[in-house]
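Batch manifest line 393
LIGAND: tryptophan
JOB: complex structure
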Amino acid sequence: MAEKRKKVILSGMRPTGRMHIGHLAGVLTNWVKLQDEYECYYEIADWHALTDDPTKAREVNSNVLGMVRDWLAVGIDPEKATVFRQSYVPEHTELHLAFSMLVSVPRLLRNPTFKEKLAELRKRKGYTKMQLKVEELEVEKELPQILKFVREEDEEKAERMLSSVINRTKEEVLEKITGEVSLDEAAIPSEVSYGLLGYPVLQAADILLYKGEVVPIGADQLPHLELTREIARDFNRTYAPIFPIPEPLLTETPKILGTDGRKMSKSYNNAIFLSDPPEVIEKKVKSSITDPMKVRRNDPGRPEVCPIFHMHRVFNREEVGEIERACRAGELGCVACKRRLTEVLIERLTPIREKAQSYSDEDVLQVIVEGSKRAKEVAERTMEEVREAIFRP
Ligand code: TRP
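JOB STATUS: finished
ARTIFACT:
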């Protein structure tokens, strides 16, 4: 009997640098598990990495080898999964263009990731409190009109609207009421490119180019997948039914905090990398914050606020129960707790680091080139179908 067809998985990562233990605990362990059960495509999303800064290409380029080296070191197997680089498969850009006509600009402006980026940029550019106040005042100015507009429909809704207006920007209020995004040009900093707005459209092209059916992602990426599903449905309806409607596979991402207590991230300089040698691991763990209320060895600690504890929870499952008890009871001091974590991490990361070092640059490059060739064959077939559906219906 023919073997049952494996479902297609597509997932990707932007090449932002070497992988750290947060990646290992979340995405990477999951990717390795999925390789046997699914036909997996793992993408180096280099175009995506340029969407917030187009001059980063050199940096992105130099991150690619290191990232894939780490993927291989943790057990991504190029015999099982297709590891490919987005820019080596130009069909991504063509499908992105075809899809761009199926998505409205207001739909993209409502994308939560985009809104976050916007807020970040505004803050960085020093949109001051004063200016924000002005925005709030404008909301107040608009209120009578808004209320009238809403009252025509529903008194109760008007009340609710009113209470939700407090502390909102004008755009947000109008968006809530009309379902449309009002474009206050001044509120969109000039750094925001067309490409950044289209980020999730490119992501939809990534997934659907391979007819991805299952997409392992973190919860933060759900809105992007929702847009992918909308685009797939719309394409199928408008032209020809060629795309599956992909499902998310939510990746359990255990909380890993950086050594300063914030989210672990290369850009915060608080990450423990898979490539860190033992003495660096030791130094980073030693200098990590713990529960600030636990000053002396015998003070009871609060594991839930301690980055060291969260790492024990993920990488030291056998002992974590006892560690939690002893920390809360004031029996375990931070120095000993950190020493134990250092041992555990060194034991876990040493084989990964050694495996990573065993590949030459050429080895890694070859995996990417071969994988991209394989990916391109699939991509070409899909694009044939897409052009056929659009231009020769
Ligand atoms: N946007 C994803 C992230 O930042 C990366 C990505 C690009 C992706 N293309 C994808 C993820 C396709 C899943 C599927 O993490």
